[in-house]
Specification:
With 157 residues, the chain is an alpha/beta fold. The chain contains 5 helices and 5 strands. It has helices at residues 22-34, 47-55, 83-91, 110-118, 131-148; strands at 15-18, 41-44, 71-74, 101-105, 123-126. The chain has a 5-stranded parallel sheet, sandwiched between helices. Helix 1 (22-34) packs across helix 5 and helix 2 (47-55) runs parallel beside helix 3 (83-91). The radius of gyration is 15 Å and the shape is globular. It starts with 14 loop residues before the first strand and ends in a 9-residue tail after the last helix.
Length: 157
């Protein structure tokens, strides 16, 4: 079982962080911990691993697949499977189509913004390069999506 994976003794995953940059992962985790915004964050390093986690396949086949996170923070520029394809597959499956997905990326390109909203992203945030701005952006993301947002009710498939 992957080291960061949940099992019966752990609380459900609140945030799925899909990020290949170790510095961004470290900083994001630090902000969540410092502000006590999430008890359990699952980190995956590429799009293929994100899909395995969400759909309980591959390394994550032991998951039930019914305990999805409250929000997915998704980078677009990922190895193996890019973030746009991850979003496409999330929205194309009845088990995950209402799962909140926040694109958190360095791309400011208009076509990336447009295509991710066309695919159903809930929000698009350009990563600030400044440490303090990045910290505040992550804090606000966690506060809204984990604490304040009311998720869509679960539907039988």
């Amino acid at each position: 079982m992957p080291p960061e994976m949940t099992d019966a003794s752990h609380p459900p995953v609140e945030i799925l962080l899909v990020e290949d940059n170790p510095n961004d992962v470290e900083l994001t985790m630090h902000v969540f911990k410092r502000h006590r915004l999430a008890n359990h964050v699952q980190v995956v390093r590429d799009g293929a691993e994100a899909l395995e986690f969400l759909f309980a396949t591959g390394a994550y086949a032991e998951r039930t697949g019914t305990d999805n996170p409250k929000v997915v923070l998704l980078d677009l520029k990922l190895p193996r499977v890019d973030g746009t394809e991850v979003l496409r597959q999330i929205r194309g499956d009845p088990r995950t189509k209402t799962l909140p997905v926040v694109v958190l990326t360095s791309s400011r390109e208009e076509r990336d913004v447009a295509s991710t909203y066309d695919l159903g992203a809930n929000s698009y945030i350009v990563k600030p390069v400044d440490f303090e701005q990045f910290t505040e952006a992550v804090r606000q993301l966690g506060l809204y999506w984990v604490v304040l947002n009311q998720p869509a009710p679960a539907r039988a498939t």
